[in-house]
Amino acid sequence: MTMMLNINNITRTQAYLDFYLQYPEIHWAFLGHAVSRNGGWNMTDLKGDLLSRLMNEMKQEEFFEFLERGNWLIFQDAFPQFLLYGESVKRRRSLFYLLPCFGISRFMEVIWNDFWVRRDSYILAIAQIVNEQSYLEARMILNPLYKEKVLHTLEFVLQDLLSFNQILFPSIKNGKAELSGMTIHQFGSLHERIILGKRLYRLLFKDRIKHQEILSWCIAHRHTGSRKDYWPHIFNDVNEGLPGPLQIRRLKNCRLIGSSPRLYSPKLEHAWPNVKHEPAEPGDWFDDCSVVHYLVESEESIDGNITGDYCETLQNLELAVLAKKAVFI
Fold this sequence. Notes:
Mean pLDDT: 91
Low-confidence stretches: 325-329
Shape: globular
């Protein structure tokens, strides 16, 4: 089942949501869905109106490979855990002793057994954040190939400076589309990624009304990979513009200037082909019990107001495209 659903970002993202709707006590499934949507948007950005003008095709492919591999790795680690939980529910007995058979960390075997008894959805979700980010650390972030081609490149540094690394959670409130979320900085830091995951969890689950608004939007808008999914007034999955360099500004305060064409944001199926992956690298990341301190709940206040920052990001990126002659190679 995991292999069948791990075809591409679209199938993974939908699988997370379908599982959450069946088992809403497994909070990470919804967090995984919401973050995976952003992964798809980042993938199609590489072929969209702005980033495609700042990167040559080779760099676009290298960045896509990085995003796709990470998305694939997390799913093939997380979803067998979900399937085993579903089977445990059906049989009314814990089957988590089987987790090592799927290459799952012994850390998660302890956590799942604890959840089976205490039903603490928060502890389970945060443990899964720690697990998935730690799982990626050795296989992606510390991988010399990805360090050289992606993490240490000028493109990655400039994306960080431009704040074009935002996790967005669209929602509908009083009939109007809203965005909440956070900006990723220091992606190469395991600690920062875990802390970001905890903050994103709070955005999704701390406020029940906000949670329902975001969930309702996700159910109503099937993921395509195009940013048109949440802002059709700015983005379109059909290219309305002319080929060649961008000549004039189109955006101001997240509105199109005059009769400017919308920004091209393709569907994933039109941007990238499916990828056949090599098996995940073996090994258990868990070798330090100090990670349990991440399971302590933080009372940090998170407002998630990101619309203004995101609008500024789009405008800065557009200005970078207009200013670019040979900034990227």
